[in-house]
Amino acid sequence: MSENNFKLLMLSAMYENGGNTTHRFLDGHPELFVYPFESQPGTKYVQDKFTTMFPVKYRWPSFPEHLTPEQMFYAIIDEEAKIRARTPFVSKFRNAEFDFDDEERKEIFISYLEKSGKKTRAAAMEAFFRATFDVWKNYNRTGKEKVWVGYSPIIGVDGEAIINDMEGNGFVLHVMRNPFSCYAETKKRPVPLSLDHYINAWVNNQYYAQYLSKKFPDNFFFVRYEDIIENPKEVLGNVLNKIGLSKDDSLKNPSWNGEVLKQVYPWGTVKTPTRKVNIETAQELTASEINEVYLRTEMYLEAFDYRDIYEEIV
Length: 314
Description:
The mean pLDDT is about 95. By secondary structure, this protein is an alpha/beta fold. It has one domain: 3-Layer(aba) Sandwich (Rossmann fold). It has a 5-stranded parallel beta sheet, with helices on both faces. The protein has a two-stranded antiparallel ribbon with strand order 6-7. Helix 2 crosses helix 4 (about 100-115). It is globular. A hairpin with a 2-residue loop joins strand 6 and strand 7 (about 260). It has helices spanning about 20-25, 70-75, 80-85, 100-115, 120-135, 160-165, 180-185, 195-215, 225-230, 230-240, 275-280, 285-305, 305-314; strands at about 10-15, 30-35, 145-150, 170-175, 220-225, 255, 260.
């Protein structure tokens, strides 16, 4: 491991805000090692003001000093990849070709940490992402990869810790979607969040993303889902240019391990990332729900040019 050649880009988005879609658009880029599923690096040891609002699996991890490297590996929740690797028959990704041994990843993770002589968060995250791609046997490598990409919903609230821990080599790309469409999307879950809970969390995500993108303009990037689906190559390519990568044609289509997907599902609730579907989803809300979301998010609608969507659906 080297402090100078490991760069990590973490994708962030409130639930149903297009994070999985963005993840899939980045998937085929020749200069990126793109994590196969949500990377969910959080641990049960995370304790702060956000603990009651967001699941700890989505957070930047915390590791008590007494943990051994093996215990650190098992502390990283990484639910989706571990389920697919260890019990593939119950994974929603069971039909995705994934030649991967999680026990082998653990051994490589431990060896990276032991060689580094560190047990910091930065060292653990580098070991975690490097080991993942060392073990993924059928990963379509290009030999040009320079940056590792992870995706964990809402991790943008930890953006300052990510950037500081990685000492200039950590980046966050936060994706924002209009609150009407994403709330309508989350209502389709088996156990949906209440409007109050959901919009409160949505507002907190956008607040921190706006703040951190101004504080760390070279490391924290804030884009709208609506802009991504209109021109993914241009919008995402502009972000990648800022960290020294190319605006590649692969950004035009969502993919899995480099193979173009007909629909994003089951990687996310969004199946077809188009403006038409985005508006139709928002229109599924009742008039009273639209009004309540508007009252709670009005300042953000104005600040991020979402008033046109509101006027289209009322």
